[in-house]
C-alpha cells in the first residue's frame, strides 16, 4: 500500500474509534475470513452485576456474599468487582483476608478469617474436591439466561452460588450480523462455562463456541485455524486473550480492556465498539484495492 493511502485509511479509522498499529495490520485485516471473539468484556460490556445469591443450606445470603467479597477485594477480575460492589451496596462487613492467589481463568483462593476460601467456576471447585451437587440445578437455570455461576466454598464446606450477569454490548448483534453477511466465520472463545457461553452466543447468532478455554486454549484455537488455512482476526480485552491476540493475523484489542491486550494487538477499538471491526475491514479493503 502507498504511504498516502495508508495514512488516509488510518486517519479515517481513528475518526471511527479504530486505531491501527501499522500498515501490515490493515492489509491483513482485508484478507481475514474468520473472527474469534472473547465473551466477557468483548461481546459483553464487561461490567457484570450480581443477579442472584443462592446460599447452601444453613447459610445466609449475607454470609455467602460477605465472605466472597472479602476474598474478591484483592482480585481485579470484572466478576470480582461485581461481587465486591454488591456487598458494599448491602453494607456488609469485609473480613480480613490474606494469602490471596488468582488462578487465571478458574477463580481465586485465599484465607478469610483463618479459613481457606475457594471461589470460581464449577470446574475449579470440583477439581478441588468440593461437592456442588445441591446447587447445580439452580446454577444451570441462571446460566441458561447467560449469567455466570460463581461457586464459593469455605474450607471443605460449600457456602453457595452467586449468579453474575454481564449485559451484551449494544452493537454486538449488529456487528456479528454484518460480519456474517460479509461471509466471515465467527467463533466465540471464552473461559466461561459452556451453558453461559451458549446462551450469549444464541442471543447474538454466533454458532461456534469454545467454552472453558484457558489463555493457551485460545491461542491453540488460532493456530489450529491457521493450519486449516484460515486467516484469523482475534478480538479480546483481557490478559487471558493476549497470547491469542499475538498469534492471530490481526489482533483486535478493546481500548476498554487490559494494557497487555492492547500491546499484543495490531488494532484497538477505542470504545470497545465491535462495529469497528466491520468499519475497519471496509477501510482496509478499500485501501488494499486502491494499490492493486
Ligand atoms: P473470559 O474468557 O470470558 O473473559 P476468564 O478467562 O477471565 O473469562 O474467566 C473464566 C472463568 O473463570 C469465569 O467465568 C469464572 O468462572 C472464573 N473466574 C476467574 N477469575 C475469577 C474471579 N476473580 N472471581 C470469580 N470467578 C473467576
Ligand atoms: Mg474477556
Layout of helices and strands, plus pairs?
Elements: H1 3-15, E1 18-20, H2 23-30, E2 34-37, H3 39-43, E3 49-55, H4 61-72, H5 78-89, E4 97-103, E5 107-112, E6 115-120, H6 122-127, H7 133-143, E7 148-154, E8 157-165, H8 172-181, E9 185-189, H9 194-204, E10 208-210, H10 215-227, E11 232-236, H11 242-247, E12 250-254, H12 259-264, E13 267-269, H13 275-291
Parallel strand pairs: 2-9, 2-11, 9-10, 11-12, 12-13
Antiparallel strand pairs: 1-13, 3-8, 4-5, 5-6, 6-7, 7-8
Helix pairs in contact: 1-13, 2-13, 4-5, 8-13
Bound molecules: adenosine-5'-diphosphate and magnesium ion.
Magnesium ion is lined by residues 38, 40-42, 236-238.
Please describe what this structure looks like.
This protein is an alpha/beta fold and 292 residues long. The chain has two domains: 167 residues, Rossmann fold; 117 residues, 3-Layer(aba) Sandwich (Calcium-transporting ATPase, cytoplasmic domain N), CATH 3.40.1110. It has 13 helices and 13 strands. Strand 7 and strand 8 form a beta hairpin. The protein is elongated and about 70 Å long. The relative contact order is 0.20. The structure holds adenosine-5'-diphosphate and magnesium ion. Magnesium ion (MG) binds next to helix 3.
Amino acid at each position: 500500500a502507498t504511504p498516502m493511502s495508508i495514512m488516509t485509511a488510518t486517519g479515517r479509522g481513528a475518526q471511527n474509534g479504530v486505531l491501527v498499529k501499522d500498515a501490515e495490520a490493515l492489509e491483513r485485516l482485508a484478507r481475514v475470513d474468520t473472527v474469534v471473539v472473547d465473551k466477557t468484556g468483548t461481546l459483553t460490556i464487561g461490567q457484570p452485576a450480581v443477579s442472584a445469591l443462592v446460599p447452601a443450606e444453613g447459610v445466609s445470603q449475607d454470609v455467602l456474599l460477605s465472605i466472597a467479597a472479602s476474598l474478591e477485594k484483592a482480585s481485579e477480575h470484572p466478576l470480582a468487582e461485581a461481587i465486591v460492589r454488591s456487598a458494599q451496596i448491602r453494607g456488609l462487613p469485609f473480613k480480613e483476608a490474606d494469602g490471596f492467589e488468582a488462578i487465571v481463568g478458574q477463580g481465586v483462593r485465599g484465607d478469610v478469617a483463618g479459613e481457606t476460601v475457594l471461589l470460581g467456576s464449577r470446574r475449579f471447585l470440583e477439581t478441588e474436591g468440593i461437592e456442588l451437587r445441591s446447587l447445580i440445578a439452580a446454577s444451570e437455570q441462571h446460566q441458561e439466561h447467560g449469567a455466570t455461576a460463581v461457586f464459593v466454598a469455605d474450607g471443605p464446606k460449600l457456602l453457595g452460588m452467586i449468579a453474575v450477569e454481564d449485559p451484551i454490548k449494544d452493537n454486538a448483534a449488529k456487528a456479528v450480523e454484518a460480519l456474517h453477511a460479509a461471509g466471515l466465520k465467527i467463533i466465540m472463545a471464552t473461559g466461561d462455562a459452556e451453558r453461559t457461553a451458549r446462551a450469549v452466543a444464541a442471543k447474538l447468532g454466533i454458532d461456534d463456541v469454545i467454552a472453558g478455554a484457558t489463555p493457551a486454549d485460545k491461542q491453540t484455537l488460532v493456530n489450529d485455524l491457521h493450519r486449516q488455512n484460515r486467516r484469523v482476526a482475534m478480538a479480546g480485552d483481557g490478559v487471558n486473550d493476549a497470547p491469542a491476540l499475538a498469534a492471530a493475523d490481526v489482533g483486535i484489542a478493546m481500548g476498554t480492556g487490559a494494557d497487555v491486550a492492547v500491546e499484543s494487538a495490531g488494532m484497538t477499538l477505542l470504545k470497545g465498539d465491535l462495529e469497528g471491526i466491520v468499519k475497519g475491514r471496509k477501510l482496509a479493503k478499500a485501501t488494499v484495492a486502491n494499490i492493486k
